[in-house]
Specification:
118 residues, mainly alpha, 5 helices, 50% helix
């Protein structure tokens, strides 16, 4: 096989593309713990909501996409599965930041326990 600048350029581009694809950040899937997690909405879940979701321009009182300033605003999104899908499964929320693994685990446990208002 004759080596040419065209072959070299093609191989370099393929290597760059391969590197970019392999460097994609993979999000860890949260796995719910079995049994009760003893997660409290008031003590564990609400602080996450207040710091990451119920912030100006996002899920505040009167927001079109839901009010996460209180339990009654959050619970319908949990019940219809949208909260789990966007926050836990795809981790596309919150926009512009990300939750820690501990926060994701806390929310997963709370949802697994039936998302109680405690």
């Amino acid at each position: 096989m004759k080596f040419s600048i065209h072959n070299f350029s093609f191989m370099c581009m393929a290597l760059v593309i391969l590197c970019l694809i392999s460097c994609e950040k993979k999000k860890a899937k949260a796995t719910p713990k079995t049994g009760s997690c003893s997660t409290s909405f008031n003590d564990n879940v609400y602080p996450i909501m207040a710091n990451s979701c119920a912030i100006p321009g996002c899920h505040v009182s009167g927001a079109k996409m839901g009010d996460f300033t209180n339990y009654d605003g959050i619970k319908p999104k949990v019940d219809n599965g949208k909260f789990y899908k966007l926050v836990i499964e795809t981790q596309t929320m919150p926009i512009g930041s990300s939750l820690t693994d501990d926060e994701i685990q806390t929310l997963t446990c709370w949802i697994s326990d039936g998302a109680p208002n405690n």
